[in-house]
Design a protein that fits this description.
- By secondary structure, this protein is of the alpha/beta class.
- It folds into two domains: about 70 residues, ATPase, nucleotide binding domain (Nucleotidyltransferase, domain 5); about 160 residues, 2-Layer Sandwich (Nucleotidyltransferase, domain 5), CATH 3.30.420.
- The protein has a six-stranded mixed beta sheet, with helices on both faces. Strands 3-2-1-4-5 form a five-stranded mixed beta sheet, sandwiched between helices.
- About 35% of the residues lie in helices and about 30% in strands.
- Helix 6 links the parallel strand 10 and strand 11.
- It is built from seven helices and eleven strands.
């Protein structure tokens, strides 16, 4: 029998089917698409399910999953494959917890910096001793674009588009270069600072906006779009 990991984000739910630690297949659904999620689970029988959510969990979805297999809802009380040095573990986002567990899955006994570029950008560091030390949170790509529009009188609301030049030639390209290259410099800065502080470092990049930035990074990074699903599966295995 397989294990199923489900990561409920702010807009999308990602689901992965694992067998013996191998990701067999995965899919994404809009959070409100309960019928689609239910159909996916009915087509893929599971021995156990683990669920992580940064949004308000759907009682209807959870009740549906409970009818299909035993379910673990990830929380600060769940046993983890690392020691948590965060001062307020009850406020630590479960997406960040899953990302750290995913880093340990791919790179055990390694200093790892996990960068998740989604609605927000999160930076999380786990030492080679398996101790989570903390990290940082900053606004993500679309949050920055939206903020410039909403908190000014004349700046337009823009969608992302590829910009190679780092100097804007009009208002639109000035906004895009400010956001895109500002994020690139921020990410590179954090990577450099962690490298200076901890020496050998593996950088793991994930999140929906990661592909937009990975080519601009100075350091070699491991890009894994399903990092959180692997992390959830690792956490599930030590809890069943």
């Amino acid at each position: 029998m397989s294990h199923i990991s489900i990561d409920i984000g702010n807009t999308l739910s990602k689901v992965g089917i694992f067998n013996e630690g191998i990701l067999l297949n995965n899919a994404s659904f809009k959070n409100e698409d309960l019928q689609g999620i239910k159909a996916y689970f009915l087509a893929n029988q599971a021995e156990h399910i683990i669920l992580s959510s940064v949004a308000k969990s759907s009682i209807e979805l959870i009740n549906c999953l409970k009818d299909l297999a035993p379910i673990i809802e990830l929380s600060h009380e769940t046993s983890l494959p690392f020691s948590n040095n965060y001062q307020t573990p009850q406020t630590l986002g479960m997406d960040r917890v899953a990302g750290i567990a995913g880093a340990i899955h791919f790179y055990p006994e390694t200093n790892c910096l996990v960068i998740d570029a989604g609605t927000c950008i999160t930076y999380d560091f786990v030492s080679k001793e398996g101790i989570y030390q903390g990290g940082s949170i900053s606004p993500g790509l679309y949050m920055r674009l939206k903020a410039m529009h909403e908190f000014t009188g004349k700046l337009p609301l823009l969608n992302y588009q590829e910009i190679e030049d780092w100097i804007g030639k009009d208002t639109q390209t000035s906004m895009l270069t400010g956001v895109i290259w500002g994020m690139v410099n921020e990410i590179n800065g954090f990577i450099a600072r962690y490298g200076e502080a901890f020496g050998d470092l593996k950088v793991i990049f994930t999140g929906g906006d990661a592909p937009k930035f990975v080519k601009h990074l100075k350091n070699n990074v491991f890009a894994e779009p399903n990092l959180l699903l692997f992390g959830l599966n690792k956490i599930l295995k030590i809890n069943v």
